[in-house]
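[Automated response] Your request has been received and processed.

Submitted sequence:
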Amino acid sequence: MKKMMKKSTQTNSKTTGRTSKNNSNPPVMPANIKKQYLKSAPQCKVTFRFPKEAAPDAKSVAVVGDFNDWNVAEHLMKKLKNGDFKVTLSLPCNREYKFKYLIDANRWENDWFADKYIPNGYGSDDSVVVV
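Generated structure:
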């Protein structure tokens, strides 16, 4: 489930004092998944970022998936000052990992920018990160 973004408007009050439509692409949210491949080992440091906009009142978020046998307590994410949650994991390369975010231990959410999505046995999709 990917979130659509509205086109933004820009104000240039110093030159015109008017607001004009921005005809370029809409602003891009920072990627929720960042990958850093290690040269010294067949590992990839994967940083998962869960944006505040996805759950503004969240107190805790965990990333749960194949890489931790779907253990809801193993990878709790750190809450950042801006309200986002973040965690970095070292994952073996040449694999695909299904995962979801668990918000406040009671709500599941997919990553808006996952590499792909695969149907699961519960009537929804799982996010997938490919490393």
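Summary generated for your ticket: The mean pLDDT is 83. The chain has no helices and eleven strands.
If you did not submit this request, please reply to this message.
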